[in-house]
Amino acid sequence: MNAMNERGHIIFLILGGFLILAIIPVLITSFFWPAKILMQIILIFVLYTTVKGYLGGGTITLIVSAILIYFMVFKWFELFLSLYILQVLLGLQFMSVMIWGIGTTMRKG
Question: What is the pTM of this model?
Answer without folding.
Answer: 0.72
